[in-house]
Amino acid sequence: MCGYGQRCWGWGHRAPSPMLLLSLLLSAAPFGLLGEETRQLLEFDGTNVSNTAAKPPGKPYPPYSLAEFSWNNITDSLDPATLSATFQGRPMHDPTRAFANGSLAFRVHAFSRSGRPAQPPRLLHTADTCQLEVALVGASPQGNCSLFGLEVATLGQGPDCPSIQEQHSIDDEYAPAIFQLDQLLWGSLPPGFVQWRPVAYSQKQRGRESALPCHASPLHPTLAYALPQSPIVRAFFGPQNNFCAFNLTFGASTGPGYWDQHYLSWSMLVGVGPPPMDALSPLVLGIMAVALGAPGLILLGGGLVLLLRQKQYSEYQSIN
Ligand SMILES: *[C@@H]1O[C@H](CO)[C@@H](O)[C@H](O)[C@H]1NC(C)=O
Ligand SMILES: *[C@@H]1O[C@H](CO)[C@@H](O)[C@H](O)[C@H]1NC(C)=O
Ligand SMILES: *[C@@H]1O[C@H](CO)[C@@H](O)[C@H](O)[C@H]1NC(C)=O
Ligand SMILES: *[C@@H]1O[C@H](CO)[C@@H](O)[C@H](O)[C@H]1NC(C)=O
Ligand SMILES: *[C@@H]1O[C@H](CO)[C@@H](O)[C@H](O)[C@H]1NC(C)=O
């Protein structure tokens, strides 16, 4: 059967085209992220929370159910030239007018070739992947120290949920100071993955100063949902009926936060087949060569000295 080493798809050996991937994500996104009862935008009071990995990261405020959001007509934002589209929504009933000047947006971006986006975290993408960027912009928080989160639903794997794998690297060339990559892998057909750097940004200008930690909870099986009616989605996923949910929370009570500019963005990469692998950057390879090479040279030097000494010693002995 199909393992991760091989590239192997539901339909013969042809990978889906970027446009098909985009359609797939556009059809599946409303189901996975939007519109279901339990999918929600979470908000917590981060005041006095010192442990950033605490779950939940503070006292929860009433969440916003994404089922009660109204969304723009996706057709209007679909751009075949850049292979992208944006869902933008706000609560239908907004008594506190928190979203009077704000919105929650999901931007889906497919790629026609391999590369990296210009902005961090610059995850390596291929034509078999799509990027999903979530942005909360301009909404009034419910408190002075609000931390936000998302509850995300995804397909299960057999009776179990995939687990979040953390990969650590010594290389942060593309995502400054972020040495971790989190991913979910599905081994069964269609094999696929979701991956992200555990970082969100509190400014449009993404960098070290605007980076917030992103924490993911373990996945739990959730109520069974029907897949969306889209024939594309049905053809791709088949008769799947096991779903899992997890929470992502962004930020800590200290450091940059949503409160700075009322801006929060986070992105992930979704794809079929095995995930793209980052090679070490030339800079890191150079540093490694120097760092590992120098002790190597010292060892070699030590060895030579030792050899010479032994030689001298044996010569000395032989003379004696
Ligand atoms: C936060 O801590 C301060 C001092 O420890 C306390 O006065 C305040 O009531 C606390 N606030 C919350 C929301 O717990
Ligand atoms: C979305 O817009 C397109 C054209 O712009 C239109 O054909 C379609 O009916 C609209 N869909 C909804 C749900 O309003
Ligand atoms: C929305 O923006 C307008 C103008 O920028 C401002 O006057 C108004 O107070 C804002 N409303 C909220 C709820 O923030
Ligand atoms: C927000 O901060 C201001 C000033 O720092 C304070 O007066 C106000 O009580 C705080 N509000 C909440 C909800 O904590
Ligand atoms: C996500 O967090 C909210 C608020 O703390 C909680 O009610 C919900 O059960 C969590 N969901 C998951 C899947 O952990």
From TrEMBL:
The keyword Transmembrane helix applies. Keywords: Glycoprotein, Lysosome, Membrane, Signal, Transmembrane, Transmembrane helix. It is found in: Lysosome membrane. Required to protect lysosomal transporter MFSD1 from lysosomal proteolysis and for MFSD1 lysosomal localization. Pfam families: NCU-G1. The chain crosses the membrane at residues 283-308. Residues 1-35 form the signal peptide. The keyword Oxidoreductase does not apply. GO terms for cellular component: lysosomal membrane. It is a single-pass type I membrane protein. This is Glycosylated lysosomal membrane protein. Interacts (via lumenal domain) with lysosomal protein MFSD1; the interaction starts while both proteins are still in the endoplasmic reticulum and is required for stabilization of MFSD1 in lysosomes but has no direct effect on its targeting to lysosomes or transporter activity. Belongs to the GLMP family.
